[in-house]
C-alpha cells in the first residue's frame, strides 16, 4: 500500500482526442466538414450524427490521437501520484482491447495494474478524478475533481469541479 495520493484519469476526451477522431471519420465518410462552433454546447451524439457507427468501427479507439502534452504530464504525474487510467469501455466491448493497446503504445509506463476498464465510474475511490463528463465527476466522492474542457461541456458551469483546458494547465495544478 502506498501513501501517495491517487488519481483517476479518463481516456476519451482527456487522454485520447476522440473529437478529432469523430471529425476525421465523418469527413472521410461524408465529405462534410462539421464547423467547430456547431459542436459547442451539444452532446457528442448531437455534434456527430454518425457517432454510434464510428465508435463501433474497428480501429476507432485504437487510432485516436493523443491530446497535446498528455504523455509527458501523465508520466510526471505517475512519478508523484498513484495513477489509474479509468475508462468506461463496456458499452462498446470492441473498445476493451483497442483501449488497452492504445495505452500500451502511447503510455508504456502505465502498467496493466493501473488500467481500469469499466461500465460505471461510480465505484472509483481515488483522491482525484480528471474527466470531461459530469456524469462521472458528479458521483465522484474524492477530494478534488477536474473538468477537462471539451466542446460538449464548454458552456457548462463546472460547479464544484475545477475546469482545466489542457494538460499544461492541469500540470500547473498537480505538479
From TrEMBL:
Q: Which GO terms describe its molecular function?
A: 5'-nucleotidase activity
Q: What is its EC number?
A: 3.1.3.-
List, from the UniProt record, the residues annotated as the active site of this protein: 10 (nucleophile), 12 (proton donor)
Q: Which UniProt keywords apply?
A: Hydrolase
Provide a GO biological process annotation.
pyrimidine deoxyribonucleotide catabolic process
Is Hydrolase tagged as a keyword?
yes
The broad enzyme category this protein falls into is: hydrolase
Its family?
Answer: Belongs to the 5'(3')-deoxyribonucleotidase family.
Name by which UniProt lists this protein: Putative 5'(3')-deoxyribonucleotidase
Task: State the organism of origin.
Answer: Lunatimonas lonarensis
Organism lineage = Bacteria, Pseudomonadati, Bacteroidota, Cytophagia, Cytophagales
Amino acid at each position: 500500500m502506498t501513501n501517495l495520493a491517487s488519481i483517476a484519469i479518463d481516456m476519451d476526451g482527456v487522454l485520447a482526442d476522440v473529437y478529432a477522431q469523430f471529425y476525421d471519420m465523418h469527413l472521410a465518410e461524408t465529405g462534410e466538414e462539421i464547423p467547430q462552433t456547431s459542436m459547442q454546447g451539444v452532446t457528442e451524439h448531437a455534434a456527430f450524427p454518425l457517432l454510434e457507427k464510428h465508435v463501433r468501427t474497428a480501429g476507432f479507439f485504437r487510432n485516436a490521437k493523443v491530446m497535446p502534452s498528455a504523455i509527458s504530464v501523465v508520466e510526471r504525474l505517475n512519478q508523484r501520484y498513484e495513477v489509474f487510467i479509468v475508462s468506461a469501455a463496456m458499452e462498446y466491448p470492441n473498445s476493451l482491447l483497442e483501449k488497452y493497446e492504445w495505452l500500451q503504445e502511447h503510455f508504456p509506463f502505465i502498467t496493466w495494474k493501473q488500467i481500469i476498464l469499466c461500465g460505471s465510474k461510480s465505484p472509483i475511490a481515488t483522491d482525484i478524478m480528471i474527466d470531461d463528463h459530469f456524469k462521472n465527476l458528479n458521483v465522484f466522492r474524492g477530494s478534488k475533481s477536474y473538468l477537462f474542457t471539451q466542446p460538449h461541456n464548454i458552456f457548462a458551469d463546472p460547479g464544484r469541479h475545477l475546469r482545466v483546458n489542457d494538460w499544461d494547465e492541469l500540470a500547473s495544478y498537480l505538479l
